[in-house]
Design a protein that fits this description.
The protein is α+β, with helices and mostly antiparallel strands and 285 residues long. It contains eight helices and 15 strands. The structure holds N-(5'-phosphopyridoxyl)-D-alanine.
């Protein structure tokens, strides 16, 4: 069945929605995006995603054409029109169409705002019980990974390499240290039971799920160390896991074919996942 999508103020069938070949999102990946999870037809952690969208726009001098209230109204309308119960809403904002290709951009061009829904099995996903396998991979991205841009070619290449190696995803490595996952934040649990994850900087995306998990870990009485960790430390960890709006928390059971801990999903990862889902559902909009 065709989805209804949103494009520049209109709700259209996906086959009817089109963007100019001169749109800067298409020519230069001059665009930012967000993905918000939907559970029971409601938005999860949406205020955090909007704040990060505002920040991405500020950093790139992009005009955000909607307020938080206007955006949530669009998101709710799309959820209703598509009967979405569980999955996500993708949003992309580009610097728009200037009618030609020019690296430098003019001020004041109308941006392109587009949203669509994706049905996904978030709560009962088989990856939760199976865990995922990742491979380490060179982090070839630019130096502003804190901005959520659609320049995702390094992530596409890395994930393709992971699939070719019969793995599910990558953990990206820079100067011997893990930065993050292919489209997620990365964590290990030490033998002492502390969670370790890379501190926020321009090197990683400031995950909205990550921020919630750090607060919840505190409530569980688990210490979180925000510090660099190497891939060797990850091989020797008790547990490993990833977080994102499309996975919440997925346990990592092998890195570069080496089993992590006993090779099964870790207790802390699963406990954090449960508490995240419960809390997020209670606060869903
Ligand atoms: N990706 N790091 C990277 C590089 C990401 O692409 C993502 C999210 C995250 C986790 O952020 P959050 O918890 O706010 O979803 C970390 C989304 C889901 C995507 O690109 O589809």
């Amino acid at each position: 069945m065709e989805r209804t999508v949103y494009l520049n103020g209109e709700y259209l069938l996906e086959s009817q929605a089109s963007v100019s070949i001169f749109d800067r999102g298409f020519l230069f990946a001059d665009a930012v995006y967000e993905v918000t999870a939907v559970l029971q037809g409601k938005l999860i952690d949406n205020a955090g995603h909007f704040r990060r969208l505002e920040r991405s726009c500020r950093e790139l001098n992009l005009t955000l054409p909607v307020t938080y209230q206007e955006l949530t109204a669009i998101q709710h309308e799309l959820i209703a029109k598509n009967g979405l119960q569980e999955g996500g809403i993708y949003l992309q904002l580009t610097r728009g169409n200037e009618g030609d290709r020019d690296f430098s951009y003019s001020e004041g061009v109308a941006p392109t705002l587009m949203l669509f829904t994706q049905a996904r099995n978030l709560v009962n996903n088989p990856k939760v019980q199976q865990g995922i396998k990742v491979i380490s991979y060179d982090d070839m991205r630019w130096r502003r990974r804190d901005i959520k841009t659609t320049s995702l070619l390094p992530a596409c290449m890395a994930k393709h390499a992971a699939h070719a190696a019969n793995a599910d995803d990558v953990w990206l490595i820079e100067d011997g240290y893990v930065t993050e996952g292919g489209s997620s934040n990365a964590y290990i649990v030490t033998q002492e039971g502390n969670i370790v994850t890379r501190p926020l900087s321009n090197d990683i995306l400031h995950g909205i799920t990550r921020a919630s998990l750090i607060t919840l870990a505190d409530e569980l009485g688990v210490t979180v160390e925000e510090r660099y960790f190497t891939i060797d430390e990850a091989y020797a960890a008790k547990e490993a896991f990833i977080s994102s709006a499309t996975t919440f928390v997925w346990p990592v059971v092998a890195i570069d074919d080496k089993p992590i801990g006993d090779g099964k999903p870790g207790h802390i990862a699963l406990a954090l996942r449960d508490i995240y889902i419960r809390t997020a559902q209670a606060m869903a909009e």
